[in-house]
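re: ur question from yesterday

yeah so i grabbed the chain u mentioned. its 259 aa long if i counted rite. heres the sequnce exactly as i have it in my notes:
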Amino acid sequence: MFEELTALTLLFILSAGFFAGFVDAIAGGGGLIQLPAMLLTFPSKDVVEVVGTSKTGAIFGTSAAALNYRRNIKTEPKFLLSMVIPAFLGSGLGSLIATQISTVQLKSGIVVMLVAVFIYTLIHPDLGKLEVAKHSPRKRTAIAICAGFVIGFYDGLIGPGTGTLLMIVLVAALGFAFVGASAIAKVVNVATNFASILVIGFNASIMWRVGLALGAANLAGGFIGSHVAIKKGSDFVRIFYLIVTFILIVRVAADLILN
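ran it thru and got these structure tokens back, copy pasting raw so excuse formatting
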């Protein structure tokens, strides 16, 4: 596969992988950079194959960020598992039926939700600065299970913006600070990527050498991005999150208009 790529093209996708890992580690949304770059590089390849290859690279960055966050920010293991397991199952299901249903209505709903959350976050400057536990432990777990499954399904079905959607739930609905939300979102995102890779790997081909090279770049970006987020704190992550959310709104809305 590498024989088909020029040095400039390889540099292009590796740069995209690095910046995707960096952005994703801070606020989610790395797929907005990486997946379009991959689709542009491999226009003749089946979309599912390109998506699987992109996720193969992305899992390295999300894993590096998750490990770095876990070393610096403590998260309750039971709560984390209550989100990780449903997200894994949802992503596997979404990947399994990704090529069998229309996603237009789902994308429309995502745009409406993202606009609402963007405005809500913008007019509440203190949101996500400090962790303020909301709901009883049982209700928090129930929300985590439902959100994990639904967002995992979205990741398997469409993909870009999964980390951002996870942070919406963790900050706005469950009361986590932005940095703590990033730490949880990265672990959940590892699970959703892994489920998609398993399903796509069994049902379609993956460009493994490209995926591993992309993974190295993504890993470097994820490691640096998580360090920056931990050092700068929730105020910085909030601003980054708003920027990424706005870009995600524009991207998904453009897909709907053009298609």
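noticed a couple things. The longest helix spans residues 47-72. also Residues 2-258 form one domain.
anyway ttyl
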